[in-house]
From TrEMBL:
Entry similarity comment: Belongs to the class-III pyridoxal-phosphate-dependent aminotransferase family.
Protein name, per record: Putrescine aminotransferase
GO terms of molecular function: transaminase activity
Pfam families: Aminotran_3 (PF00202)
Residues making up the signal peptide according to the UniProt record: none
Cofactor: pyridoxal 5'-phosphate
Keyword Heme included in the entry's annotation: no
Cited InterPro entries: Aminotrans_3, Aminotrans_3_PPA_site, PyrdxlP-dep_Trfase, PyrdxlP-dep_Trfase_major, PyrdxlP-dep_Trfase_small
Keyword Transferase carried by entry: yes
Keywords: Aminotransferase, Pyridoxal phosphate, Transferase
Organism: Sphaerotilus uruguayifluvii
Length: 464
């Protein structure tokens, strides 16, 4: 049977019968039926009922160059034809992997000259843990084992990735975190910063790192890892004072700084990497998603010279690697993707045109009765749904979380041609970097429409 002969109901029945989706209540989805996405072009998707959706989440924070880019398709086809796979284990390599390593060294900050390839962001962060601990072993400080991260951070779904992450509902399944990982609170002004300016709060939140280092013992801490802007946690943009102070504390105690750039890498924040936007000099940098714009899976770790030198000159064999480390097709697609980003000056466009326009749009949404705090950074943004806008600092009064107002809003978005994600009552977007200024305005109109529909719905339910 060809795909075109199946109806939406056929797909839903088959999906429910056989496919266990990530982060999903299987039974609830089986009852409801999945939405079947069939086709994409530029920033738009179409489902099997012919509905068009504005994909303001870039797939899953990854389709940075948008759908249907012929250069990436051609690169994959050509590489598959020539050499679909060869490994990089036994003293072998392939031209696309070498060329991508060279190009990554060029587009990343100057401390990065080496890359370790993986298949995903989670695998990249597993690599980070092994590499960080190996580094301190080689430095003669094997007791430096502990890696610090943040509550409500997201670093993947493998045992190590989920442990680094600070999602308590993930830890609750499977006995996590693994040993040697500890968390501090997130730099979320709305949650922890009452009575403080954002800048004051940023310094206080960074101070939690120092407190934790002193609690654990400075000679036991190996590294600190964080997302420059928390993505899955709800697009939480930290105060401007936060990251410089984190850098200062890492320097003071000599601990490695790891920037998880799986979402913020490759232009999302208006620079090539989020650490450039936030003003840090990480020793290691995890990437995935935007490196290929999600067209094929690829992830990895950029290894700064401080760590690379030790691993290379003193390390001997590093007992770690994946079948798909340096997959030639993935690397060929990444090369085409990064070259396209350069040709189309996508990073500069986000920094100078679409990013500032999106920031203005989100600021203007604050006049809506349902909108409290808004935040944006490059092409990622969030708005907080509130029951009332009282108070002077923009916090407003939250809804009862049990009402799941964010999900109500998300339903109106989906029903009206907009993919916007809900994290609790925080609505978030991260649209493709190819979007035009006109498309930012189109998106603004859709968001306002969906907020109006949500408001009417909540009024009808008597919730506002
Ligand atoms: N780190 C961050 C910051 C992420 O956002 C994600 C995925 N959303 C990951 C790591 C894990 O990446 P993957 O799903 O490719 O394993």
């Amino acid at each position: 049977m060809t795909t075109t002969t199946r109806t939406t109901a056929d797909w839903q029945a088959l999906d429910a019968a056989h496919f266990l989706h990530p982060f999903t209540d299987f039974q609830a989805l089986a009852k409801k039926g999945s939405r079947i996405i069939e086709r994409g072009e530029n920033v738009y998707l179409w489902d099997t009922d012919g509905h068009r959706l504005f994909d303001a989440m870039s797939g899953l924070w990854c389709v940075n160059v948008g759908y249907g880019q012929q250069a990436l398709i051609d690169a994959a086809t050509a590489q598959m034809t020539k050499l679909p796979f060869y490994n990089s284990f036994f003293q072998t390599t392939t031209p696309p992997a070498v060329e991508l390593a060279e190009l990554l060294a060029e587009v990343t900050p100057p401390q990065f000259k080496h890359v370790f390839f993986a298949g995903s962001g989670s695998e990249g962060n597993d690599t980070v843990i092994r590499m960080v601990r190996r580094y301190w072993d080689l430095k003669g400080q094997p007791e430096r084992q502990v890696i610090l991260s943040r509550w409500n951070g997201y670093h993947g779904s493998t045992m190590a990735g989920a442990s680094l992450g600070g999602m308590k509902y993930m830890h609750a399944q499977g006995g996590l975190p693994i040993p040697g990982i500890d968390h501090i609170d997130q730099p979320h002004w709305l949650e922890h910063g009452a009575g403080m300016t954002r800048d004051e709060f940023g310094l206080k939140a960074a101070g939690w790192l120092e407190q934790k280092i002193l609690e654990v013992g400075p000679d036991k801490v190996a590294a600190f890892i964080g997302e420059p802007v928390q993505g899955a946690g709800g697009v939480i943009v930290p105060p401007a004072t936060y990251w410089p102070e984190i850098q200062r504390i890492c320097d003071q105690y000599g601990i490695l700084l790891v920037s998880d750039e799986v979402i913020t890498g490759f232009g999302r924040t208006g620079n090539w990497f989020g650490c450039e936007t936030m003003g840090t000099r990480p020793d290691l940098m995890t990437f995935a998603k935007g490196v290929t714009s999600g067209y094929v899976p690829l992830g990895g770790v950029m290894v700064g010279e401080r760590v690379a030198k030790v691993l290379i000159e003193q390390g001997g064999e590093f007992e770690h690697g994946y079948t798909y480390s340096g997959h030639p097709v993935a690397c060929a697609v990444a090369l085409a993707n990064i070259r396209l980003m350069r040709e189309q000056r996508l990073v500069e466009r986000v920094r100078d045109e679409t990013g500032p326009r999106l920031a203005a749009v989100f600021e203007s949404l604050r006049d809506h009765p349902l909108v409290g705090e808004t935040q944006s950074c490059g092409l990622m943004a969030a708005l907080q749904l509130v029951r009332a806008k009282d108070g002077t600092d923009g916090r407003g009064t939250p809804f009862d979380p049990a009402l799941e107002v964010g999900m109500v809003c998300r339903g109106h978005c989906f029903g009206n041609g907009l993919v916007m994600r809900a994290v609790g009552d925080r609505m978030i977007i991260a649209p493709p970097l190819v979007m035009t200024v006109e498309q930012v305005d189109e998106l603004a109109g859709l968001i306002r429409l969906c907020l109006d529909l949500t408001l009417a719905d909540l009024q009808a339910r008597g919730w506002v």
